Structures are given as structure tokens and as C-alpha cells.
Amino acid sequence: MYRARFLERKIADLVKIFGAVLVTGPRQAGKTSLLSHLASELFPGAVQQVSFDTPSEIDAFRRDPELFFANHPGLLFLDEVQHVPDIFPYLKRELDRARGSFRFFLSGSQHFELMKGVTESLAGRTAVLDLWPFAVQEAREVQVGAAVKTAEFLQDPEQLERISGDQYPCNDRSDVVPAMLAGGYPPVVLREGAGDWLEAYRRTYLQRDIRQLSQVGDLGLFDRFLTLCAGRSCTVLNKAEISRVLGVDHKTVDHWLSLLETSYQIVSLPAYHVTTTKRLVRRPKWVFADTGLALHLQGIRDARGLLGAPHFGKLFESFVIMEVRKLYGHLGVPWDAYFWRTPKGLECDLILAVGGTLVPIEVKHGATIGDGDFQALNAFLEDHRKLVPFGILLSLYPRVEKVSRRIFNVPLGLILNGPKIGAGPE
Fold this sequence. Notes:
Elements: H1 7-14, E1 20-24, H2 31-42, E2 47-51, H3 55-63, H4 65-71, E3 75-79, H5 88-97, E4 104-108, H6 111-122, E5 126-130, H7 136-139, H8 144-153, H9 157-162, H10 172-182, H11 186-190, H12 194-213, H13 219-231, H14 239-246, H15 250-262, E6 266-269, E7 285-288, H16 291-297, H17 303-307, H18 312-331, E8 337-341, E9 347-354, E10 357-363, H19 375-383, E11 391-395, E12 401-404, E13 407-411, H20 412-417
Parallel strand pairs: 1-4, 1-5, 2-3, 3-4, 10-11, 11-13
Antiparallel strand pairs: 6-7, 8-9, 9-10, 12-13
């Protein structure tokens, strides 16, 4: 059963401008389903699909690339192109021949190799978009227009002013815990049997994807590393500690982190800093991309285990940051994001760079608000007053409300369920 993705609208616009559209993202996020659906919607009966996930198709291309494209002269959907990195010069030639016309849908799930091929051969010819597992709004079938407004509310204080007082209730039992435990992978969201599927994904990821990406000699040790990273999501990783626990050197830890980022299992948030006299944390924060998989890796299977986890706050923060990340990515909105932390522990969990300004966001798991919740936001606003028009406290408090002169409370219910019909300006 196909469920609509927000990215559809952006792709439909881009095929009018570019010769090719490349959709990247983790394996099983729904790239093939999305592009197959769009191909049939936008070009009924005109798009041939070739999957390079099978040895026979890879061999057909490599045996005679000229014949391969001669046999596929029209619109093509080339799936899993990371398996044939040598195809990019041929794609460039085909796009040049069809200049001014759309030619290729492309998908792939290994970021660095794909982007290298695009940069070297397809720059200016191909639009590149990320597809993550379902955002909660997508899973709950919120309309794309509501998702667009959600992103606008995070960027524009005037729009937040206009919906001030609106209520967006959200609680652990009905909203937060089920969404965190499920994560966003389509087979989990659309069918039952989450635990079995996530365990199969874990094994497939280790045994197939990691071996294809790099020669990892001890997959059992890498699996332990994966679990350690899942339990430390939304932290500045202590690489020395991980190195000591696993008995591997620092270079191995760095290499394995690169593998996780390349395969879209973790997202790196750089530390925001400018040249100041203040000492700030400058190492990146790592966020595990799918909470369902992260919790499965840690053996957390139910609400009791999740809410009782000593690091629940960081797990919740990871979930919220990735919901914002997925909304941005699936709407095709540029993602330029950071975090900010002082050595004394003041931290803004997420900093969005928006059109020359910064929007600091503090994530709070709680339905009550006190002055202490604004301490980090106020510090960031004071330090960067020329760049920061306002800040956001993202919490379970259900009302959109201006809680200080430059800080708004934005309910998590707005992020998960979308705004009310007609909310904000047209």
C-alpha cells in the first residue's frame, strides 16, 4: 500500500527544470516506492525502471554501456545507482543529448559516493533530494500544505504571532511514545511486526550494506559500536571512551562514524560558533536518525522501558530534532542546522539558519514552563542579538504562546500533527 510523501510536490516541480532528479536516503526509507509512484503519475506508461540491486542489471550495463542506453532510449528510473558509480559519465552524456528535457529518475543509499559522482559529472543537470523514513505528519497522513505551514511557523515570528493562543495538545501515551517506538521506516509504520522487521534490518545492514561500504573485519564489534551510538544519540560523542570500551583505535572510531553517516544512520549537527572570546564546545553532536531502530538496538521495546530509560531526555531530543529534519528534507527546504553549547552546560539543542538569521530551538519534555527553561535561549539571544530575531521553546505545553519578549512556545503537537486548517496567513 502506497502512502503519499511530502517530497512528491518538490519532485514534480523539479522535473520541469532539471534533466534528472536523484533521491538519496537510507535503505528501505521508501525511495523506490516514491519514484515508481511519481513516474507513473507524471509520465503514465513512459518510464522504464531498472534496478541495479540485481547482479544481472549491473552486468548488463558494465558489459556494454552504449548498448545499455541504446536499449533504454526514453525516460528511465535507475534504482540503487550507488552500485554502479561508473555510470555517472554516461548519464552526463545522455543528459547533454536530451538537453532541455527530463530524462532520469535516480535513487541511491550511500551519500558520499553518490555526491562524488554528481559533483564530478552531473553538477547543474541533476536535482538532489533526501528521503528519510516517514515523518510523523506523513505517517498520520497530514496534507502537504499543512506541513509547509509547520516549517514556516518555525522560521517566522510574525506567523507564530498570528496563531498565538491556538492549542495543539500532545501527550506521551497517545503521541510521543508510540511514534518514538515505531520510528519511521515504512514497513514498520504501515504493517505490524516492528520488532521482527527492525531486527532483520539490523542484520541486513551489517551483513550487506556495511560490507559493501567498507571492509569491516569484525561485524560483531561493529554491531556493538552501532548500539553504543544509538544509546548516545544527541550527545557530543566521547570517542576516547568508545575506543576504550571496544578496544579499537581512534581512527577506527572515526571511520565507523563515517560509515554510519554515509548510510544515513546518523546525522551530524556541527557546533555553532563565531570568533568570540567565549569558550564553546566545538565538536559535532551526533543524532541517531531513526528512533525506532535506535530503541530496538538498545533493547527498549515498550512504553515502560522507554519512559524509564535514564537517558530518555536525549532520546526525546533526538526524536524531535529528526522530526524537524525530516519535515525540512521532505519539503525540499534547505537544511542548515547546528547546536550551541557552553562549557558550563548551557545548550540550545538546535539552531536553524534561515535566510541570514538564526532560530535557536530548545527542546523540553514537559507540559509546564518555567523561567529556567529559557536560560540557554536567552544566553544565545544575548550573544547573537543581531542575527537572532526570536527563539523557540518546543515543548508539550499545548498552547502557542509568547512566553517572553523574544521567545515563543511551540507545542510538539503542532510538529507531529500539523497546524489547524486555516492556521496562519494564506
